[in-house]
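Fill in residues.
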């Protein structure tokens, strides 16, 4: 089976700072990849390069057959980037909901405005996805009336309503109070079970062990381990991975 995501020789610089170093990665359709590592290891930058929220410095990104080389210019490059973004849903740490729109309007905005989806179909799809995250009953509420967990679940419904091929989650529970984390992780488990390809930057080791097909460990801008969860957590090869796991176990990570 052809990979749905293929990253080749990816480098990213911020000025003189070399943030990603020769990253190569393939992700199969329906695969769930969790990415762990200390702050500053390059995890979020890797996700943001996949959908070109950050322009890679070198290398190529391919998503569902669309291959984009770093450093491109001009109309053709911009069109390719636009098409890649349509294939990649993104859920951020901060929920990024529009405060002046109710829940349903937030979920509709992308499909109608960006994709040009017919409004009746977009409403049906939006309500279906709100129902799937358990929030259809909140469709007329505004974000300031929602808990953090509810806001993040709306953000997931919004991303799903764009009908992406791949979902990118950038530490989606890190801004939540501990008692709200579980409700978001449960929704993410459901999305994974429904067959969505997912790349998830997370500190939630239990989620990674339970849901991931593979876990990547990043350090200093490189992938230092790539293994099945049981292998990685029980027999890490790199001492930096063991140190990371130990920090989480002791609650200091």
């Amino acid at each position: 089976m052809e990979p749905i995501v293929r990253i080749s020789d990816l480098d990213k610089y911020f000025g003189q700072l070399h943030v990603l170093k020769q990253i190569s990665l393939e992700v199969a359709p329906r695969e769930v990849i969790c990415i762990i590592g200390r702050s500053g290891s390059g995890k979020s930058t890797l996700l943001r390069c996949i959908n070109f929220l950050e322009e890679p410095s070198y290398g190529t990104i391919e998503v569902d057959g669309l291959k984009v080389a770093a450093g491109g210019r001009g109309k053709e490059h911009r069109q390719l980037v636009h098409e890649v973004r349509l294939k990649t849903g993104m859920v951020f740490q901060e929920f990024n909901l529009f405060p002046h729109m109710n829940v349903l309007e937030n979920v509709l905005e992308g499909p109608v405005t960006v994709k040009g989806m017919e409004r009746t179909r977009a409403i049906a799809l939006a309500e279906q996805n709100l129902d799937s995250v358990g929030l259809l009953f909140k469709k007329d509420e505004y974000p300031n009336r929602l808990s953090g967990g509810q806001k993040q679940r709306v953000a997931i419904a919004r991303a799903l309503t764009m009908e992406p091929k791949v979902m990118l989650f950038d530490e989606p529970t890190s801004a939540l109070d501990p008692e709200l984390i579980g409700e978001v992780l449960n929704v993410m488990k459901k999305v994974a079970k429904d067959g969505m390809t997912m790349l998830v930057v997370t500190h939630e080791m239990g989620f990674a062990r339970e849901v991931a097909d593979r876990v990547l460990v990043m350090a200093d801008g490189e992938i230092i381990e790539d293994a099945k969860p049981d292998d990685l957590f029980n027999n890490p090869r790199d001492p930096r991975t063991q140190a990371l796991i130990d920090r989480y176990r002791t609650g200091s990570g």
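DSSP finds nine helices and ten strands in the chain.
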